[in-house]
Amino acid sequence: MNGTLRLAWRQQRLPALAGLLLVTACAVWVAVRHAELADIVGGHDLTACKGWNGACPVDVEVAVFDHTPGIRALGTLAVLLPAAIGMFWGAPLIGREVERGTVKLALTQGAGARSWFAARFGLAALCATVLSAAVAALLAWWWEPIANMKDGVYWFDPYILSGTGPAAVAGALFALAAGTAIGLLVRRTLPAMGLTAVAVLATTAFLTLFRRDWVTPVDRITPGMTPKRLIGSGWSAGYRYLTPDGVQHPLENCTFSGEELRACMAEHGYTGRVHKVYPSSDFWTFQAIDTAVYLGLAAALVALTAVLLHRRRGLV
Q: What's the half-sphere exposure (Cβ side, CA atoms, 13 Å) at 113?
């Protein structure tokens, strides 16, 4: 371990050990709860349990009800973990050195700005990757036996869509990069931590609220008054009415049911209904979009930080 990396480890071992303790505690908790869940669902065929229209044995329904709060709690931790990494690891990574003036000494030594930054950020990125991947894996492992079951947690819930898979790891790297860049620019640790939290949570909220705008749902068409196809584990994006020319019309035009609905559809010339659905296979599409956005932002922020450090403007 060279000098810059050794120094980086000495200065980052506290958050690294805190992360290790967090993962260890989560692993013990999830292992115990998963074993309890496996004992209940292990003897059942859960094929018919999946989806909003599923029907499960009573003991499985009780298990879903009992384990869902814990899964959501761990999912909340997974979703908020990037913000914590950005605040408590990224913002002080360079910002504290700038605030104390010790960056001047570091950048005037033989190592140089690039190798100093590479050692510090590289070690932090490695730890953030391991930490976020471990929490995401634990969440997915606990959730999997009762995934997409009625009254439980579905694949499109933010707990799962944002808290598992490569998107969770990419989000942690983005948060680390954002905190590092903000710390360097602001030069005061506490304000940088606050701004980092706002930036990371705002980005996560943006991706969560608008993710459906970037993917086209599947149209499930039912002619006339034919019973609608069951949604299963799909993510509903609403209903429309269909006219013979293929144009879709708002559901608000006919909010009735039964014979009243039939009469209203005839009055407007509707020949069928359209249910817009995101199938469960779109999980990976949404994951790919989030991952690409996070990694793109992270790369840009790391490049910005490296350029600013290389120029050393106002720092030494």
A: 15
